[in-house]
Amino acid sequence: MVFVIIKNSVNNQEAYLPLARSFAADARCDAGCLAMDVLIQPEDRKHVTFVSRWEDVSDFEAHCAGSTFAKHIPGMAPYYEGGTDSIYEIVG
C-alpha cells in the first residue's frame, strides 16, 4: 500500500478548489484508490494538497495515465503553477 502526497502551488485557490474536489471524487472510483482528500491550510492561499492512499504504486501510475486525469487536468491547468509529488510505501 502507498500514500501519495501532492502539494500544488496555484494562482487562484478559490477557483481551483471546486475543480480539485471534483477530481478527487472521480479519483476515488479509480482502480486501487482507497482514499483521496483535498487539504488546505486556511492561512495559505497559494497551495492545495492532495493526500491519497492506493493499493500499490502501479494503481497510482495507471490513475495518472487514465481517464480521470484526461477529464480534469485541462480545466485545472490554468490555475496550476507547480507542485511536488511524494510517494510513501507503508511498511508497518
Question: What is the strand and helix layout of this fold?
Answer:
Blueprint: E1 2-10, H1 13-27, E2 33-39, E3 47-54, H2 57-64, H3 67-76, E4 80-89
Antiparallel strand pairs: 1-3, 1-4, 2-3
Question: Can you walk through the features of this model?
Answer:
The structure is a single chain. This protein has one domain: Alpha-Beta Plaits (2-Layer Sandwich), CATH 3.30.70.100. The protein has helices at residues 13-27, 57-64, 67-76, and strands spanning 2-10, 33-39, 47-54, 80-89. A hairpin with a 7-residue loop joins β2 and β3 (47-54). With 92 residues, the chain is α+β, with helices and mostly antiparallel strands. A 4-stranded antiparallel sheet has the order 2-3-1-4. Helices cover 36% and strands 37% of the residues. It is built from 3 helices and 4 strands. The mean pLDDT is 97. α1 (13-27) packs antiparallel against α3 (67-76). The N and C termini lie close together (10 Å). The chain is globular.
Order of helices and strands: EHEEHHE
Question: Rg from C-alpha positions?
Answer: 13 Å
Straight-line distance between termini? 10 Å
Query: In CATH, what is the class?
Result: Alpha Beta
Number of helices: 3
Broad structural category = alpha+beta
Strand content: 35-45%
Task: Please tell me the overall pLDDT.
Answer: 97
Tell me the CATH topology. Answer: Alpha-Beta Plaits
pLDDT < 50 stretches? none
Fraction of helical residues: 25-40%
- Supply the CATH architecture: 2-Layer Sandwich
Q: Could you say which overall geometry the principal axes of the C-alpha atoms support? A: globular
Biggest β-sheet strands, sense, barrel = 4 strands, antiparallel
Total number of strands? 4
How are the strands ordered across the major sheet? 2-3-1-4
Number of domains: 1
Work out the oligomeric state of the chains in this entry: single chain
